[in-house]
Every structure is written in structure tokens, then in C-alpha cells.
Specification:
Number of strands: 13
Largest sheet: 9 strands, mixed
CATH architecture: 3-Layer(aba) Sandwich
CATH topology: Rossmann fold
Helix content: 10-25%
Order of helices and strands: EHEHEHHEHEEEEEEEEEH
CATH class: Alpha Beta
Shape: globular
Length: 216
């Protein structure tokens, strides 16, 4: 089981699409909501489609929050996708405030409808957008290896994470004048606001990097 990437099933993620992407890039994946399996895993993916409150409700109902944190304490890597990335933070305003997993400092808020020039943004933010390097650090040491700043990825979301520590934000996208955190990373916790599995060859590179990441 240790060589498999566990895709956490809490009833709200596109788990099968994530598994197909992992397997296409040569990895092994298992969809599971079994706390024992999750707590002993070395690589976890937390996907997500839907609302923050519903997601946390399902996670807590299945006690997956405890098994995720136990896995991290045992040296696992955790990769959150879209809603899964947002759930990593302290709390969200979506149908809330609602507490998150508290793995990253910050909160999740609705994308502002208007920009500074009173132009209206379409919410949700749907479609392809470029991501840019947030802090100038090399991406070769994280899950964005072999991906260039300015690469397009596919987004579907109405809320955005606001990190307390800007050093946790690795990449952002510009949506009509607002910088939306698009990739986060702190220690062994990683996340993308976009969906790599829906982002073509460049998105698959992220899964390949996660597969190849050494756990030690």
C-alpha cells in the first residue's frame, strides 16, 4: 500500500479523474476513506468540488481530518486540489465562517465581483488562466518542476484563499486586477487552486512531480 497515492474520498471530489491522471503518468492510485489506510499513507491527495462547509462536514463526519493530520505527523505529503486546497486553511466565509483543517494560516473569501475600475468579474472564475511566480524562487525543488511561469491552467472557483504568510504562496493568477493564490506550499503541504487533471500536458506534469517526489 505504501507505494500508492491515496486519493481521499469524502464524497465531494473528482476522485476518478485524479486517479486516471496519476495512472496515466505511471503512478498507482487508490480512492479511499479508510482512516487506517490514510493515516499510514506517505502521499495523499485531497480533491474537491463544492462548498467549503459541506466538505468539512463530510471530512469531520468520517474523521478524515484526524487521519490526514496523523499521516502528516508521520512524514506524509498532502496535495490539495481546488476546494481541497482551500480546506487546508484556517477558515472560510463560504456559508460560514467555517473552520478548515488548520494546516495553513489564512482564510478563504469570495472573489470580489468588481475590480478597482468598476469592471465586473464573472463569478465563478471559470476557464484557462496563466500562473506566475509569486516570490521568484526556483520551482525546481517543488511540484512545479519543469513548468514555466506564464503557463495556462484550468480554473473553476468562486472563492479564493488569502494566505497570512505570503511565503506560502508559490504562484498566482491575475483575474481582472486581483492576484489569486494559485499554488501554495509549506513543508509537506502543497495545493493548487486550478485542476491539474483538466489542464492538459502541463497539469499532468504536476502529477508526475508528485509521483516522483521522494518521501523520507
Amino acid at each position: 500500500m505504501s507505494d500508492k497515492i491515496i486519493v481521499i474520498d469524502y464524497g465531494m471530489g473528482n476522485t476518478k479523474s485524479v486517479c486516471r491522471a496519476i495512472e496515466k503518468m505511471g503512478g498507482k492510485a487508490l480512492i479511499s476513506d479508510n482512516n487506517e489506510i490514510i493515516s499510514k499513507s506517505k502521499k495523499l491527495i485531497l480533491p474537491g468540488v463544492g462548498s467549503f462547509a459541506s466538505g468539512m462536514n463530510e471530512i469531520k463526519k468520517k474523521q478524515l481530518d484526524k487521519s490526514i493530520k496523523l499521516a502528516l505527523s508521520n512524514g506524509a505529503y498532502l496535495f490539495g486540489i481546488c476546494l481541497g486546497m482551500q480546506l487546508l486553511f484556517n477558515k472560510s466565509d463560504e456559508n460560514g465562517p467555517v473552520d478548515g483543517l488548520n494546516l495553513l494560516e489564512g482564510e478563504v473569501k469570495k472573489i470580489p465581483i468588481y475590480n478597482d475600475n468598476k469592471l465586473m468579474r464573472k463569478i465563478p472564475h471559470i476557464g484557462w488562466n496563466k500562473i506566475f511566480n509569486q516570490n521568484g524562487n526556483s520551482w525546481d525543488t517543488i511540484f512545479l518542476k519543469n513548468i514555466k511561469t506564464g503557463t495556462f491552467f484550468y480554473f473553476v472557483h468562486s472563492f479564493m484563499a488569502i494566505a497570512k504568510n505570503q511565503s506560502d504562496v508559490i504562484a498566482y493568477c491575475d483575474y481582472l486586477g486581483i492576484n489569486i493564490p494559485s499554488v501554495i506550499n509549506r513543508d509537506r503541504v502543497f495545493g493548487t487552486q486550478f485542476h491539474p487533471e483538466n489542464s492538459g500536458p502541463e497539469g499532468l506534469k504536476i502529477y508526475k512531480n508528485f509521483i516522483l517526489k521522494n518521501v523520507g
